[in-house]
Amino acid sequence: MRRQRHWYTRRAQGVLTGVKALAVAFAVVFGAHAAEPRPDAQDFAREVDRRLAVPAEEQAGYAERLEQALAHAAVQDPRPQYFVLVDRSPRVQAAFVYWRSPEGALQFIGASPVSTGRPGEFEHFLTPRGVFAHTIANMDFRAEGTRNALGILGYGRKGMRIYDFGWVGAERTWGIGGMGVMRLQMHATDPELLEPRLGLWHSKGCIRIPAGLNVFIDRYGLLDADYEAAERAGERLWVLRPDREPTPWPGRWLVVIDSQRGARPAWSPPPAARGAAPSRAATSAANLEIRSASAACTERDSARSARRAPRR
């Protein structure tokens, strides 16, 4: 009987040792997987058509600017997550996507040209610098694909997501100047008339981004930490894509800086240099659009409140 008990004891110890080894192996494999961004730079390159080839030293420099902006805003959110960083400098006009690893390192995912506030026009603001939280307190909505009086798809094609950061203080660039209040949004724009002009100051204060970047941020929920938390708590938010593939590392922070560059970097060429210059007719329509009070950042949507309500 003692021999049999001793055999069972050794067998149990062997099984336990094997289970522990297997657990360690799984931890190593899945831990390594968990420490990688999803989506990564390859996904960005495959899915976002309007991209900027940012050199490694510039990637590091913008990562440092991002950290400085977060520290200046006293943001205490060290968890692994994605960030969207925008450089509003007229000589850059670019958005950068970064991922913070569990070890705290910022990894560059990709960059695209954008358009921020063009000064000097009526009701135009400088896109404000700062750190802005993306929360359900200012619920996003989606473009209806309707054109304004000038035939412009201010928010882009139907279904494009408008990321809403609420009312914020911003510098007026018309009249007596000074500070005013504007609705800060990040959104797609007219794919034919205005998207080819990304990379230039052109909006009334909002941040215009390419449709490909809009969908990339949307599909993977890169800024949807609060939205996903609300879904887990039982809310049904219609604005979230039913076919989304949410990242395990969602963030909530949009960061806007101004690098105040004295010259345009080669990696952020103006639209004409990218072979994306619009036609004369498109340019004429776009120039009219930026003088119109019906541009996307001030566009009123009578059905918006109904569309924002969670589905029951």
Give a description of the structure.
This protein has 312 residues and is an alpha+beta fold. The protein folds into 2 domains: 1-34; 38-308, no CATH class. The protein has 7 helices and 10 strands. The protein has a 5-stranded mixed sheet with strand order 3-2-1-10-5. Strands 4, 6, 7, 8 and 9 form a 5-stranded mixed sheet that branches. Strand 1 (81-87) and strand 2 (94-100) form a beta hairpin. The longest helix is centred in the N-terminal third of the chain and has 33 residues, at 2-34. It starts with a helix and ends with a helix. 35% of the residues are buried.
Helix-and-strand structural type? alpha+beta
The main pleated sheet reads as:
5 strands, mixed
Which stretches are poorly predicted, pLDDT < 50 over at least 5 residues? 1-9, 11-33, 276-296, 298-312
Pattern of helices and strands? HHHEEEEEEEEEHHEHH
Number of strands: 10
What is the number of independent domains? 2
Question: What's this entry about, in short?
Answer:
The chain is an alpha+beta fold and 312 residues long.
Write the layout of secondary structure elements.
Elements: H1 2-34, H2 41-47, H3 56-72, E1 81-87, E2 94-100, E3 106-113, E4 125-126, E5 130-133, E6 141-142, E7 161-172, E8 179-187, E9 207-208, H4 211-220, H5 225-232, E10 253-257, H6 280-290, H7 304-308
Parallel strand pairs: 1-10, 8-9
Antiparallel strand pairs: 1-2, 2-3, 4-7, 5-10, 6-7, 7-8
Label this structure with key terms.
globular; 5-stranded mixed β-sheet; 2 domains; alpha+beta; disordered C terminus; 312 residues
